[in-house]
Amino acid sequence: MTSDRVKIADAAVSEWHFPNQATAPGSSGYYSIRFAPVHLHDALAALFGWRHEVRRIISDVSDPGVARLKLDWWRDEIRRSIDGAPRHPLSHALMPGLEHYALPIEPFLEQAQQVENTLYARQNRDRQHQHQALVQDRGALFELICRCHAMDEPNHLATARNAGAWCEQVRRIRDAGLLLRQGREVLPHDVLQDAGLSHEQLCSPEHRQRLPELLVPLVEGMLLRERPSHADRVMPARALRIQTRIHSALLDELIRCKFDVVNQRIGLTPLRKLWIAWRTAV
After folding, report:
1. Contact in structure between 109 and 141 (CB atoms under 8 Å)
2. Which residue has the higher pLDDT, 190 or 108?
3. Residue range 118-137: mean pLDDT, rounded
4. What digits encode the pLDDT tens for the residues 177-224?
5. Long-range contact set of residues 176-180: C-beta below 8 Å, sequence gap at least 24
6. Count of alpha carbons within 13 angstroms of residue 234, beta-carbon side
7. pLDDT score recorded for residue 270
8. pLDDT at 165
9. CA-based angle 95:100:103, to the nearest 5?
10. CA 157 to CA 122: how far, in whole Å?
11. What value, to the nearest 5°, has the Cα angle with vertex 19 and ends 18 and 23?
């Protein structure tokens, strides 16, 4: 009986090895890990898995009180895992990476905080604050990936954080129509104010069609200027190079489609992601 329980537990943990539900074939996460050093595959997949489980609270739990309890449970769970006492199968899959690369707890908690901010609909008042939120969101994940590549110099971590924030901004532009339908933030308060709109007005069907015109200056003024094309020279973490190149191609596709994201989701095909990942790797 004990042997059966051990087998079940091992199977549950292995579900979070690469590839897992957070790094499914065809996703950018999948290709960035697929071409990373083999010994990092499971550790990186577990990091994507942790982010996936925390962020799915936003879409899966409608009751704010229950959502907060689940989020607090994951916060406590990462603390238990850092202390060597994990409970969840994902946490067990995360343990080898936590121990071997001495991953700090702060990037995990920052990602959880951004989920809380979304749950409570906290708006960023300007582009600077929105950028900082993105740095503490996917930027925190990119820091952890960077550390798994044994790169913990301050300049490497800062570059990884900014690259993660940039990629997350591209993703949010891609998903902008869906985010508005869910009542979630796409543009910070100052950008909306300049356009004579409130967040609630932009979310309404009447004003939602203005979204593409509002995205143009954001991209021209920030995303194109800050495109992390220098990442290859200062950040040799292959998984992050692949991530940034895939998202750079996605941005080009969004520009080509004139940000027609109100009622559709523009993306790259798995074959194109594979080609970008392979070219980056070789």
Report:
1. no
2. 108
3. 92
4. 999 999 999 999 998 999 999 999 999 988 999 999 999 887 877 666
5. 176/211, 176/215, 176/259, 176/261, 176/262, 177/208, 177/211, 177/261, 177/262, 177/263, 177/264, 177/265, 178/265, 180/208, 180/211, 180/262
6. 15
7. 97
8. 94
9. 75
10. 27
11. 115
Residue 10 scores a pLDDT above 50 = yes
Location of structure tokens 């979630």: 184
* Nearest by Cα to 260 from 215, 199, 217: 215
Residue 170: both structure tokens together: 């591209």
Using CA atoms, how far apart are residues 66 and 68, in angstroms rounded to an integer? Answer: 5
pLDDT at position 6 is 45
Return the pLDDT at 2: 43
Residues present in the chain in total: 282
The pair of structure tokens assigned to 135 is: 């740095």
Please state, in angstroms and rounded to a whole number, the distance separating the CA atoms of residues 57 and 126: 26
Rounding to the nearest 10 degrees, give the CA dihedral for residues 241, 185, 109, 10. Answer: -70
Q: Which domains does the chain possess?
A: 2-281 (1.10.600.10)
The answer, yes or no, to whether the previous bond of 19 is cis (omega within 30 of 0) is yes
Q: Which two tokens mark 121? A: 């609909």
Residues ≥6 apart with Cβ < 8 Å to 7: none
